[in-house]
Amino acid sequence: MEAKKKPHIDLFTDGGAEPNPGNGGFGVILSYKGRQKEFFAGYELTTNNRMELMAVIIGLEKINTKAKVAVYSDSKYVVDGIAKGWAVNWKKNNWIKKKGNLVLNKDLWERLLNVIDKHEVEFNWVKGHAGHIENERCDFLANQGINLKDKIKDEGYLDYLKNVEDYLEKKLEKEGDLCRKCNTPTIKKTPKKRKIKKNQNYYFEYYLYCLNCKAMYMVEDAKREVSDENTLF
Of residues 85, 122, 129, 221, which has the active-site annotation? Predict the structure, then answer.
């Protein structure tokens, strides 16, 4: 028996916040065999990138059957995050970047990766505000969301604001402090080569390094002012 062919669906998205962070909204168009459905929503306090992510997530979550989906977004952040494998790597590293910084919008990246697994998805970047019909329409829908009176609370962003304060309080300061990613004691390392760029005001004489997961941490005590004598190292 021949396997059922997956439907091909085009998903057009856009999102934004005014100001950033501020009131946000997203717009979505789902297109299948000449038929289109539109969706939009508004959020009280959020960011441009969160709305760009949310647009793609909601669009994919609206599809009730396994499908081949071509996503069209003007957000390099979203497109490159998936197409270049950044999000998958972030997840493998417990949502902490190489230098110990938290990955922003972890909740939405996780949600996006989960819904992508249900479909066959291809991401395409389109230039925004360049006359692309569906992109311009999604921009219009996103602005409708921004201007809604009754907006949704972006609980994920509110949680991030609370958690990031605690995270920043756990800054690494000295050799032996535990790595944020894997709790391994860090060591002090000095860069082998260092070039001071034009107009650079300071550099780091050393950094803390985790031998286990290779994370690097810049520390305040290692910061040095640039003088005329050390423009090249």
Answer: 129
Task: Say if residue 125's pLDDT is above 90.
Answer: yes
Which is the catalytic residue, given 16, 25, 42, 52? Answer: 52
From 15, 24, 25, 145, active-site residue: 15
Whether 129 sits among the annotated catalytic residues: the reply is yes
Residue 228 has pLDDT above 90, yes or no: no
pLDDT at residue 232 tops 60: no
pLDDT at residue 233 greater than cutoff 70: no
Q: Measured in whole angstroms, how far is the alpha carbon of residue 9 from the centre of its chain?
A: 24
Catalytic residue list contains 166: no
Higher pLDDT pick, 120 / 177: 120
Asked about 228 being catalytic, the answer comes back as no
Q: What average pLDDT score do residues 211-224 get?
A: 84
Query: Among 27, 74, 119, 156, which one carries the catalytic annotation?
Result: 74
More confident: 213 or 49: 49
